[in-house]
Here is the input.
Amino acid sequence: MTVGQSPELSELFAPKSVAVIGASNRPGKVGTSLFRNILKGGYQGVVYPVNPSSPSVSGVRCYPDVASLPEAPELGVVIVPAPAVAGVVDELGKAGARGVVVITSGFREVGEAGAALEVEVVRRAAQYRMSLVGPNCFGVINTDPAVGLNATFSGSLPPTGRIAFVSQSGALGAGILQYGIAERIGFSRFVSVGNRAGVDENDLLVALGKDAATRVILLYVESLADGRRFLETAREVTEVKPVLVIKSGRTPAGERAALSHTGSLAQSGRDQLYDSLFAQSGVQRVDTLGDLFRFAKIFSTGLSMAGPRLVILTNSGGPGIVAADAAVRSGLELPPLPPPLKATLVQRLPSIAAVSNPLDMTADIGPNTYRETLAALLGAADLDGALVISTPTGTMTAQDVAQAILDSKKANPKPIAACLFGLSDLSKEVAFLEENGVPTYTFPEEAVGGLGALARYHAWLTRPHTTVRTFAVDRAAATAAVAKARAAGTTVLAEYAARSLLAAYGIPFPKVETARTIDEALAAADRVGYPVVLKVASPEISHKTDVGGVALGITDPPSLRAAWDSMQRSLRAAAPNARIEGFEVEAQVPSGKEVLIGVQRDPNFGPVVVFGLGGIYVEVLRDVTFRLAPLRTLSAEHMIESVRAFPLLKGVRGEPPSDLAALAEIIERVSQLAVDVPEVVEMDINPLIVRAQGHGAVAVDARVVLSPPSRGGPSA
Ligand code: COA
Here is the structure.
């Protein structure tokens, strides 16, 4: 947040006075259109043009500079060439303005010289505690008739409505506003954030979250100004109103040592990272601008859908089937009609009607049938919302259908979307339905898409609210493991060090003991428990298997003796000069499902936990999901459920289910480690063997990469 800006951003959205610096009379100039738009939009405050070369602009008395204005403008809109902007911002600050919108381009987006100018603009705005929008932006709109501010250089003010739109792209914003006007989409606020040198999408989420005129917030972003703050802010705002986002482009990945599996995964999966971030904060990500506005339309009605159970009522089969397919794709369910209701409807409807879900009443019906059937469906406790499709039949007019829908809606708050399919020139009927709270679409897929978004938002609002669990861990041991690596000047932890760091956070590893003689090995195996694995421990042997340094599946003392002797012989032959520190006797990990849990530290998002299918195919299948740490139990559970391999973990073909509770807890423990130990920049446990329910999970291999000492967090 810019120093001094109000959380509601009233200085931007509802200023009592506006000065337009660079307002002009010359046709075709940005300063000419913007000033005229303010007048044309019916701005209710006082507007002052500022321009040294004109006594008046569009018939309004003009002032040569800000200092000459008769009062301090609450907001300044700046449209002067880039080198002059900082000076104008300074004048505005001195005069006592509280906000400034800089339309001018030629700043950070054009390179170093522009970036330097931008720094100066930001410095001046901060000096006077002014909120700053832009530079390089398209402006701000508030359609509230009590304000009527169109401080953009687009054409007309869009209709007043409940949709707020924040755009990182000015051109896209301008296009959307025109589309909104053509499609009669009502907006409450519009902000083009431009270079986001001051106000960014997070500030706007806070302000629009509090704005009573706004029911739904739409964001178009190419990157997030601060990913972590976005998560925190959006999580709060989505408790109050829905937020829909289109995210395109890429965020600079920042410097990163892509040494481990999860490193390269997170690099290639940045878009997935955004998906996860949005899922974690309750923001709905949409793929197309069309969907953005179709979903926004349904949210702007204030309707809510208490569950995913949809009924489709139609007077023709085809569109009903198309809608049914699309409904399932949108995450909705089409439950069978409750038997008593079905029996009643069978009696009332024509004998050729298909009384199921979709319910095809057939073409030969009139408005009364629509009215009565829809009312009966909405009354069923097992149904959460309805899609009504009407195709032209000659048995009734679109106005009849619209009236019938509204009549049946009166008694019931459940959401209805209408699809007046294949009917032309329906602007009157559509307006009639929409003014009365029935969002209306041309195609059935669009309508169910909107209803699906409503149901998802309700599911978010009513999700179980779990907390971030804090486990009792051995922080001293973790600190010691990091300190030891630091002292040795290494950033990649040795296997035993990685294990001890993770073990300090309660990540289970197989029991292991080190032996120097066969007698010690036999005693160790007794304690560890057969079957065991015997491994050579030598800092000079990195590929133990190549020199015969690993023996698996040792089930009893005689086989341990045999394995020991054979290993000594192989080592003498294959690694005669290697310094051997001893031999590890390790409990053999029982069979189970292989998964991966990792940590990435992202410059924009902070610590991120990775979970997915483990083992050797992880890179190929990329069946992974991400969440920002710290994560709650519910998020850990969602991570497990969201990978494609989840059915394998749940158990297929009579297999017992895996220990999902143990797995979720390990994910949460890793999340705690990621937050507690900032020196860990990358980590992955791969594989973690998840055993059958009740038998826990065991890590087999772990890799930990620390930040270079100078860059890391507090060094131990
Ligand atoms: N105080 C008051 N008025 C000033 C001024 C100052 N310090 N400096 C210049 N002006 C006036 C000029 O006299 C001129 O008025 P006039 O038309 O009556 O002569 C007006 O401001 C504009 O200045 P000018 O030099 O003619 O510039 P311009 O209109 O060609 O371009 C911008 C100015 C801001 C439009 C241009 O630099 C720019 O950034 N264009 C891109 C805008 C854009 O696309 N933004 C992003 C959208 S997403």
User: Anything to note?
Assistant: The longest strand covers residues 680-690. Confidence is low (pLDDT under 50) at residues 250-267, 711-716.
